[in-house]
Amino acid sequence: MKILGRIFGSDKVIDHAAKGIDKIFFTKEEKAASWVNTLKAYEPFKLAQRLIALLVTTVYLFVWITSAAMFIISIWLDPFLEASKQLATLNNDTLGLPFALITGFYFGGGAAEGIMDKIMKKK
Q1: What is the value of pTM for the model shown?
Q2: How far apart are CA 109 and CA 46, in angstroms?
Q3: Exposed (0-12), middle (13-18) or buried (19+): which is 70, by Cβ within 10 Å?
Q4: What confidence score (pLDDT) does residue 22 get?
Q5: Which residues of 27-61 are buried (b: 16+ CB within 10 A; e: fewer)?
Q6: 80 contacts 100 by C-beta, under 8 angstroms
Q7: pLDDT at 65
Q8: Most buried of 83, 84, 90, 92 (most Cβ within 10 A)?
């Protein structure tokens, strides 16, 4: 080590290079620790996902419930039938796609993770 230290100017250079090479190759324990750290880093984003999913779902379902109530009222008051249909169509046209995407990403992420876990266990 002394000869290499003199060639490269310091023993610290060799020590840092050895540590760098060690960091390239992961053991199973290091991979597991890395995965745990990644999950901890995603925790704030999961909270934001839940909040967005809750907000969009609440508005989307509220409009659908209002449309259904107007449809029931239309049994006695005929003009409510057309208004109910228009409200339902408007709800689907404006909030349908965002609702589907947000709930798909929210629930699809867990499903994709479960599928990947099953595939990894088979190997």
Answers
A1: 0.54
A2: 11
A3: buried
A4: 61
A5: eeeeeeeeeeeeeeeeeeeeeeeeeebeebeeebe
A6: no
A7: 92
A8: 84
If you write DSSP's letter for every residue of the chain in order, what string do you get? -HHHHHHHS-HHHHHHHHHHHHHHSPPHHHHHHHHHHHHHHHHHHHHHHHHHHHHHHHHHHHHHHHHHHHHHHTTT-THHHHHHHHHHHHHIIIIIHHHHHHHHHHHHHHHHHHHHHHHHHH-
Q: How long a stretch of residues is the chain?
A: 123
In which residue are the tokens 């620790």 written? 33
C-alpha span between 55 and 94 (Å, rounded): 15
pLDDT of residue 79: 82
CA distance 11 to 38: 34
Local mean pLDDT, 10-residue blocks, the chain (123 residues): 56 60 69 77 78 87 91 85 89 88 79 74 70
